[in-house]
Every structure is written in structure tokens, then in C-alpha cells.
Amino acid sequence: MSDIRMVIGALFLVYGVILVVAGLLGDAVNLWTGIPMAIFGTTFILWSHTHPT
After folding, report:
1. What is the value of pTM for the model shown?
2. Cα–Cα distance between 2 and 21 in angstroms, integer?
3. CA quadruple 41, 53, 49, 51: dihedral positive or negative?
4. 17 with 37: CB under 8 angstroms?
5. CA 41 from chain center: how many Å?
6. Could you report the per-residue pLDDT of 1-53, keeping only the tens digit for each?
7. Please, which residues have CB within 8 angstroms of residue 19's CB and are 6 or more apart in sequence?
8. H helix runs in 1-53, sequence order
């Protein structure tokens, strides 16, 4: 976890998943905000694994 992309990606992924769950249980704004955040976080994590420089 020394790469900053991994830390940023993990934070966005965790917050995105929390918002998706909250959106499924209630407010649709949380769902539509959480999905892009989870995708963004996953992209950062994949980027840190594929280009580890």
C-alpha cells in the first residue's frame, strides 16, 4: 500500500460501496453518486496494479 493510487482507489471504492448500499436502501442520489465513485476507485486500483512505477 505504498502507492498513492492504491490508497485513493481504496478510499473511493469503500465510500462508493457504502453509498451504493445506502442508495439501494433508500435515496436514489446515493446510488447514482456511489456507482461512479466505486468505478473510479476500481480504476485507480487496477491502474496501480498494471503500471506499478
Report:
1. 0.87
2. 29
3. positive
4. no
5. 3
6. 568 999 999 999 999 999 999 999 988 999 999 999 999 999 999 998 888 77
7. 30, 31, 33, 34, 37
8. 4-25, 28-50
CB count within 10 Å of CB 17 equals 15
Give the three cell numbers for residue 6: 492504491
Q: Which residue type sits at 18?
A: I
Q: What is the CA radius of gyration of the chain?
A: 12
Amino acid at the residue 41: G
* Residues comprising the chain, all counted: 53
* Residue whose entry in the numeric block shows the C-alpha cell 465510500: 15
